[in-house]
Design goal:
This protein is α+β, with helices and mostly antiparallel strands. The chain has a domain of about 35 residues. The protein contains two helices and five strands. It has a five-stranded mixed beta sheet with strand order 1-3-2-4-5, covered by helices on one side. The chain is elongated and about 40 Å long.
């Protein structure tokens, strides 16, 4: 089932201790099918681009849910990756 989920606090889901307040920025990940169409979108927050990319990679995992994923912050493409077979 394709759809959209709400914001996820990456620091919270990844077990970072709440010892300090982290500046979190909004990101979104698009899971793409083999035709390049967006099949699934998830909004989440991360500290910076690398954390956002890592979180998106965990969500996508190169699995059968899509052929590629893109990480966006507003209108800026942060990262794009295709499956090895795609």
């Amino acid at each position: 089932m394709w759809g959209m989920i709400s914001f996820i606090d990456v620091a919270q889901c990844c077990g970072r201790p709440p010892a300090r307040k982290w500046a979190m920025a909004p990101y979104r990940v698009h899971i793409l099918d083999h035709g390049g169409n967006v099949r699934y979108t998830a909004n989440f927050k991360a500290e910076h681009d690398e954390h956002a990319r890592s979180h998106a990679e965990l969500m996508w995992g190169g699995s059968s849910i899509g052929a590629a994923y893109e990480v966006w912050q507003d209108n800026r493409l942060v990262h794009s990756e295709r499956s090895r077979g795609g």
